[in-house]
Amino acid sequence: MRKVLFVFAILASISFAIAPVFAQDDSVLQNGIGDAGFANQVRIAGSLVGNGNFSAGSCATGFSQCPSGDSCTCLTVMDARFSSSRIGPGRANLFLTFDQTATFGNLGNDCTPIYGELDAIAKKDSPQFSIWGASCDIDTAGNQTANGAMGMSDSLLFSTSGYATFTSAIGKGGHVNLKFSGKAQ
Prior knowledge:
This protein is mainly β.
C-alpha cells in the first residue's frame, strides 16, 4: 500500500510540474495570434527615415488632424524606411500636422504642437501609432526638431499596451529622421 501511495505521489508531483507547460493560453489577440511570449511588457525601439512633402492645411489621416479653426501645415512622408525591435523591419507612412495657431516660446514663437499618425507594415506586425508632441525651429534655415509621445492604437502583435517617446529631426525639405523607444505588451 505504501508503494502505491508513493508512486501516486510521484505521478501527482510530475503532473503538477508539467501542467503549466501544456496549459492553454486564453490570451489570444486579433486574427488568432497569441501573446504568450509577451506576458510582460517588452522593449520596443526603432526608427523611421524618409523624405516627405509639406502642404497647407491639416493632414486628414487618423490622429493627425488639425484642431477646428486653427491654421495648420501637413507633412506627409510615404514609404519611409521603418525598423523596430520586436516589430521588425518594413515600410511606414507618417502624417504630421503642425498647428501654427498654437505656437509657443517667449523668443519668437519658435515651437508648434504636432499631431500625427505613423502607419507601419513590418515583418512581424503592422502597428499604428498616434503621435502628440511639439516641433521647434533649430535654425533660421527652417530645420526643426520634434519630440513627444506615441501611443500604439492598433497592432496584431500587442493587445494590452504600447507606447514610446520619440525624438526627430525634420529638414526644411521634408526629410525626417525619427527615433523612438518604449514598451508594449
